[in-house]
Amino acid sequence: xxxxxxxxxxxxxxxxxxxxxxxxxxxxxxxIVEQAGLEVILVGxxxxxxxxxxxxxxxxxxxxxxxHTRLVAQTxxxxxxxxxxxxxxxxxxxxxxxxxxxxxxQAGAAAVKLxxxxxxxxxxxxxxxxGIPVMGxxxxxxxxxxxxxxxxxxxxxxxxxxxxxxxxxxxxxxxAFALVLECxxxxxxxxxxxxLSIPTIGIGAGQGCDGQVLVLYDLLGLFDDFVPKFVKxxxxxxxxxxxxxxxxxxxxxxxxxxxxAESYN
Length: 265
What we know:
Elements: H1 6-15, E1 19-23, H2 27-35, E2 40-43, H3 47-50, H4 62-73, E3 80-84, H5 94-106, E4 111-113, H6 121-129, E5 134-139, H7 145-148, H8 158-174, E6 178-182, H9 186-195, E7 200-203, E8 211-214, H10 216-219, H11 237-253
């Protein structure tokens, strides 16, 4: 079965078809995501929080991201696999950014995603010039959480909104094939989406985007340490897991498990 391609991904915008993107970090969830019919997987640096238990994404390394990218890419049968470039993997220099981005393609990803506006335009230009597809990310950028003063909505004021719109246009001109808009007012996200010919993927950016992305563990109700306003849990798997583990413990302690059904004669 063929993987979704970048041109096919982009055609969704022209066809008016919404794109559905979700994060995944391992083989099991990659299989489940594909069985559900989703065609775009982001190997997010959000794994720093939901898998590694950190308070932010800043400590996630290239080694971490490449490991999880390999797990997802070797399992995916038809999904477009996009990998987040972690903090400090593209900021230091254009050369280092291109080299690190290339490692993700060697690990099996079809594209990379990086955060930032005007400061990364030269990185995007260089990567795309060498055949590395790049997804941009503007608005609230988690890797800049210390500078921005926390996880908060960006672009509420006119000057800030105009800056984000300009950054989006510059990233498109630099060759980005799509753009994530995170935590921006719905009206701004709609304006940016209308202004660009490339797809916009929203997270906390309202309905006006060309698609949506959520962190898998948030969507499934597995991670509840921090639940942003834009998250809608479609299941409550943490509660189910707690119930299952509690029952298992009780049955072992009272001698109910294993029963004859789970034993060999």
